[in-house]
Amino acid sequence: MIGIGGTGMSSIATVLLQMGYRVSGSDVKESPSVNALQKAGADVHIGHAAAHVAGADLVVFSSAIPADNPEILEAKRLGIPILHRSEMLARILNNHDGIAVAGAHGKTTITGMIAHIFSSLGLDPTVLAGGEMQNHCVHACWGRGKHVVAEADESDGSLLRYYPQIAVVTSVEADHLENYGGRLSELIDTYARFLTNIKSGGTLVISSQAYAVLQDSVEQANGRFSVIVYGLGEESGSEQLDYRAGEVELAGATSAFNVYYHGELLGRVRLVIPGAHNVENSLAAIAVARQVDLDFQQIADALEGFHGAHRRFEWVGESCGVVVYDDYAHHPTELKKTLQAAALFGRRVVAIFQPQRYSRTKILMNEFARSFQDADLVVITDIYSPPPEKPLPEVSAERLSELVAEQIGSERVLYVGNKDRIPDVLLPHLGANDLVLTMGAGDVWQVGPALLQRLRESARDCSHR
């Protein structure tokens, strides 16, 4: 498995190991996921070399692997079958009662919620998530039940390889357009084609936002699968929702709400993860769970024990009265929803944002600039862009910080190019009632622990902060 340490690749490798297969692989560097796979029995090489594929019956590669990779070339020379990561996942999902979770936002959390509910209630699913969970099987596990719960990635169109019994579409928004010729219409068309993959007699669970975008495609299915629409019920036409939340109470890291199905009250749900967006995420999970005939009250009880996904509003620590959280938010909508959740804590919110990819930043620059209204102080650090992407002219974090300043005022914005400098630069600006939130899909999470350490080492008396 080439690029075995990546999130999607490591989850597949974990499941294959648990199924009893011999797994080997390679990656450019050691990582926690690589170390975990080695402990689980995988033979992982650091660095890429043709010799690594000797003895392999099948080679699997990730999207990050270039065509001239020596292991790819050697596999071709030897005639070893080669599969993209998504093709390997498809082999697992398509031969079971697959539940594929797609959409711009919330995929990992909803996948985790479904997995936790199913596991808690004895269904023993196979799970392949795009992030680590703080509950069931971390991020991947092989179950003996008939269900496979997995994320379906729209970023490169690989979701079209999946043929699920139940498909979830959380949202449809402009993202990853660098892979769609810059055209939102192409991305929407990919989602529409994904709907045609739902097995006959299956189910589409779709948010009201996504349904508004894909309604024509849903109607063209002519009843081949059932459709369940969910939402918070805040928008006009909420009476048309199959599942909606009502009487929502948001309080810091928790929430409580009533769930209505076709207008009838099912009961109340309590979550120990913050934000209205997680209320909506839970509606999708509830809809899926009830579709396989699980009892609502048991579902609600299981959800109260779900503690979220790694890097989704995850607690990092506290020092000198400053609390630090970390979140994977890397799209304008995600930034807004995460900051809205942070504002519920009643603290001064300090947002540290690291944009990911020059292409995404270029396309969404203006939307990013309008995403920080709920932050009291914003720190922008340089763009994280994994290879092979190259910098683009006039696209920079510094320019983004200027645009953010135009929206909320220069006194609320700091540009710190090198993320390693953020703890020292930010320290004088912090007070005892602050909530610091690192956000981004790159390595900005490293700032949180470093900031906490700097706070502890500070010569200042915490009581004077």
Give me the secondary-structure topology:
Blueprint: H1 7-18, E1 24-27, H2 32-40, E2 43-46, E3 59-61, H3 70-78, E4 82-84, H4 85-93, E5 97-102, H5 107-120, E6 126-128, E7 140-141, E8 147-151, E9 166-169, H6 184-195, E10 203-207, H7 208-220, E11 226-231, E12 243-251, E13 254-261, E14 264-271, H8 276-291, H9 296-304, E15 314-319, E16 322-327, H10 332-343, E17 348-353, H11 358-369, E18 377-380, H12 397-408, E19 413-415, H13 422-426, E20 434-439, H14 447-457
Parallel strand pairs: 1-2, 3-4, 5-8, 5-9, 6-8, 9-10, 10-11, 11-12, 16-20, 17-18, 17-20, 18-19
Antiparallel strand pairs: 6-7, 12-13, 13-14, 15-16
Helix pairs in contact: 1-2, 5-8, 5-9, 6-7, 8-9, 11-12
Mean model confidence by pLDDT: 91
Total DSSP helices: 14
Q: Count structural domains.
A: 3
Which radius of gyration do the C-alpha atoms yield? 22 Å
The CATH superfamily label of the largest domain reads Mur-like, catalytic domain
The largest sheet, given as strand count, sense and whether it forms a barrel, is: 10 strands, mixed
The low-confidence parts are: none
Secondary structural class: alpha/beta
Level-1 CATH class name of the largest domain: Alpha Beta
Dominant shape: globular
Strand content: 15-25%
Counted beta strands: 20
Helix coverage percent: 25-40%
Q: What is the terminal-to-terminal distance?
A: 50 Å
Q: Oligomer, anyone?
A: single chain
* CATH fold-level topology of the largest domain: UDP-N-acetylmuramoyl-L-alanine:D-glutamate ligase
CATH architecture of the largest domain: 3-Layer(aba) Sandwich
Q: Strand sequence of the main sheet, in spatial order?
A: 7-6-8-5-9-10-11-12-13-14
